[in-house]
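User: Can you help me understand a structure? I only have the sequence.
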Amino acid sequence: MRFSIIVPIYNVEAYLSSCIESLLGQTYSDFEVVLVDDGSTDGSPAICDRFAEQDARIRVIHKPNGGLVSARKAGAQAVRGDYVINVDGDDMVANDYLEMVSKAIDDSDSADMILWNLTELYDDHQVVPKTKLPQGLYRDEALERIKGLYLYDKEEERIRMDTLIPGWTKAVRRELYCACQAEAHEAMTKGEDAFVMLLMLIQCRSLYILHYNGYYYRVVESSMIRKISEKDFDAVALLLRSMRERLTEWPAFERQLQLYSLFMFEHVLILAARAFPYRRYRDIIRRWLDEDLLAFTAKGVIAKPSRNDRIMKWAVTRKHWWLLYRLVRLKG
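Assistant: Let's start by predicting it. Here is the structure, written out as tokens:
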């Protein structure tokens, strides 16, 4: 079997049938679908069971709620295909999705990973993000250059959010996928895709970039407006510490991680300043930043910092939380 598709599911009954139907409607047939019901409390479990009864390519795992990482781990223990693909339960794929990926595998002489792009699906329109990475096979020095672009685009001085990071835009050899997914902490609820991709890149020996946008990522705008929790900040801290621990395996990644840490830190500062009064904000930042993470984050300086960037770095290194609070509220 060439493909195993893992679909983590939690309370997505409004979209789940469309997702599964898009998988079953593929022009390519050598695949299985592993539906992982992560303790859903709506009609999702019944939808999973109904489709499994109708099509032998579908298997269902029902488990207590444990989050996305936990669901993918459960799916990874059940897969049988040569390559593993993630699909979220509220998304869809084009009917030639697996056919295009299978052709890329053949064209790449069975690369460790095949990467492609996505289409953002809104209620009334679609957006097709572009990638500057050329289509083709990357090995040896060419692969090292791609790794050097993983988190940070040096030319545009921005954090990358395209083809390389999302968990749903790649097919990965089963052994590599399962080994890397197993190492992700189940409490990692922010940036889990970035962490797992980091592990994959450390071990990867070849990858193929495919210019294809047949994954339809559903942007549910109402779900983007939610109450910020202190657990969100703890999850970001866990992500950065976990990444930092891997630097011994990939020392060349340090500069990228410094810049990514700075980006995530500013993101945390802005969200916390918007959500909480000063005293609670201060307590969150104090708890969030241990001395090692503080020192490491302070190193991540962009080449052409603005006046605000310089002030923020000065305030962070000297722990002037009130100044930071005022600055990020004004900046936000």
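Now, to help you interpret it: The CA atoms of residues 108 and 137 lie 6 Å apart. The mean pLDDT is 87. Let me know which part you'd like to focus on.
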